[in-house]
Write a structure and sequence with these properties.
Chain A is an alpha/beta fold and 356 residues long. Chain A is 45% helix and 11% strand.
């Protein structure tokens, strides 16, 4: 398949799903066991991924539908997850809006030109931006064909606030002080920027769904840097807009890391599910969301380095605590590169062999 | 005073405190307004500090009582805080235990030799370690003399888990995966290490109090990386030991960043106060601690970059929300270097001029 890189295969009608556990969990339908997938499941812990990584740079992997498809399918084939998530990056959106993004392997992303004020915001591409992401839609269509109905395919995007972080700060940060300062000191420009990203993201996610994504996840990786009040102002309201615009077309999972304080508000966005980090206990998360929504998570990724017997025990305990219904087993954040494949597989297998 | 660097002044009997607001708040006594101080208040936002910094390297500043005293007193003189906190670093403890610590200005600490297993733990200095920190006790005594009873002096130490992070990882990290992995994969060695740090820290804090510290703060900067269950195992139980051993000699403030989920358990440690980051609302924090303990915090440090009128308004609102009694106004984390001195002063002044 890799030989075909660059040419997009003709799109065939999608097969009905053989494993629709994820969609059932998202719709709150009865399941015999919860579905399982892992954030960053197509990634550096897989030798098969490292092989592709050694041959093609990051954006070649992302922009070549055949490569993105091969990577997306790896965890389904190798560790047997109940869903695939399209291999891509949240920063393709700032890129499509006209900002340069460099991906330095091992060092994270760098944006050489950052947003510093309203003038920069006004120069961004908005209405046309989602047309520049055709390679993502092509990858999704190709993935759906290759999956041939085995498991659902998840599309995704970064939340407006999380994308603003990189667009203003220009690189990763522990605290994103520059991005927060921008919001406090230039509220008009920051809201204009957040609104522009929101507009692009809505069009982008709708196109992903049209191309075949069965559901989508919104990553608010840096939402937890705000207090509750500022989270409402600078992140939540834009998440609400996106969920509202997209939810009729496919279920939306909202993963807002560290945002335990606004779980009640996130539950009311119309999202089908909320992703949780491991700092929430199942009991607290169920209470804060009034047991009204599907929850996803929240195993500490580092715990996948424990002995496999302990991983099995933890998974059993986690399912018991969250409950089988309205629950999607996942990590609380992305899988880390040092996890042995066997441990990742154990995590998935433990869910599949779960017994009440 | 700086000329005397290297020689410790003779210790005189301490003056009674003219401003004992902090101690009253810690003891739950009635106050007319809450006390205010700021984490990392003696730091890079002060031109007077930068002047000393340009002449002496980090450990010279820390190890020379006259320099540490000059730096400690700056925020009291310049912005008028209700307490001084001794200028030092949490990593002096690993240093006293025999590990080399390099402080690279702007890049953070590096420990060239890290703890990798039980054998390394066994080679650490434990019983004698606190004797190597005489320069801290001398700085505290000198500070108390120079303060001459104006405001109380706070001593401090890092929590055992937070120190383990650096001793195992060897440098700062967003997630301290290596340190967490060490705890999961070598529980025996990790608990031996945590216990050794605990033993040293108890002796160290007692000596700080003997030298004149009016109260002490324990910084668990990385407690928030654990889930509730693991926090109890790898951090809380050691914090409990320390508080229990020290609380009869001076009030203890426990600041565990990101550890909202264990506020009820932290409230029961016997600490006089709990420090909060800004992700807690006053209402939630009061509810989680059953309104039984003094709370300290929790202004987002980035908000000090807002216009001064907004800072004043925020402080007023924060005091109203936490309540005047059993409350210490502070930031939710350390002050950032880009804050104008005038804004820091506004924060302090707003507390002093607070009106119900």
């Amino acid at each position: 398949m890799l030989e075909a890189a660059g040419k997009t295969r003709p799109i065939k009608k999608n097969q009905p799903l053989q494993n629709d556990l994820l969609l059932k969990a998202l719709q709150g339908e009865h399941v015999d066991r919860p579905p399982v997938w892992m954030m960053r499941q197509a990634g550096r812990y897989l030798p098969e991924y490292m092989k592709i990584k050694s041959k093609y740079d990051f954006f070649t992997r992302v922009q070549t539908p055949e490569l993105a498809t091969a990577i997306t399918l790896q965890p389904v084939d190798i560790i047997g997850t109940d869903a695939a998530i399209i291999f891509s990056d949240i920063l393709v959106v700032p890129q499509a809006m006209g900002l340069e993004v460099e991906m330095n392997e091992g060092k994270g992303p760098v944006l050489p030109f950052t947003i510093q004020g309203m003038k920069d915001v006004e120069q961004l591409i908005v209405e046309e931006a989602h047309f520049h992401l055709q390679y993502v839609y092509d990858a999704i269509s190709l993935c759906k064909q290759e999956l041939n109905g085995r498991v659902p395919l998840i599309g995704f995007a970064g939340s407006p606030w999380t994308l603003l972080c990189y667009m203003v700060e220009g690189k990763g940060s522990k605290t994103f002080d520059k991005a927060k300062t921008f919001c406090f000191q230039q509220p008009e420009a920051s809201h204009a920027l957040l609104q522009s990203i929101t507009t692009v993201t809505i069009a982008y996610l709708k196109e992903q769904i049209r191309a075949g994504a069965d559901c989508v996840q919104l990553f608010d990786s840096w939402g937890g840097l705000w207090d509750k009040e500022d989270f409402a102002v600078f992140s939540l309201q834009y998440i609400e807009q996106i969920v509202d615009a997209v939810k009729e077309e496919a279920p939306v999972i909202v993963y807002a890391k560290g945002v335990w304080h606004s779980l009640p508000e996130l539950q009311q966005t119309g999202a089908a599910a909320l992703g949780l980090d491991w700092c929430n206990t199942p009991q607290t998360a169920r209470a804060l969301t009034q047991n009204k929504i599907t929850l996803q998570g929240n195993y500490d990724p580092v715990k996948l380095l424990q002995p496999v017997a302990k991983i099995k025990e933890d998974v059993q305990q986690m399912i018991n605590a969250f409950g089988v219904q309205r629950y999607i087993v996942n990590l609380g954040h992305g899988i880390i590169p040092s996890v042995p494949v066997e441990h990742a597989r154990t995590f998935v297998e433990a869910v599949k062999s779960w017994k009440a």
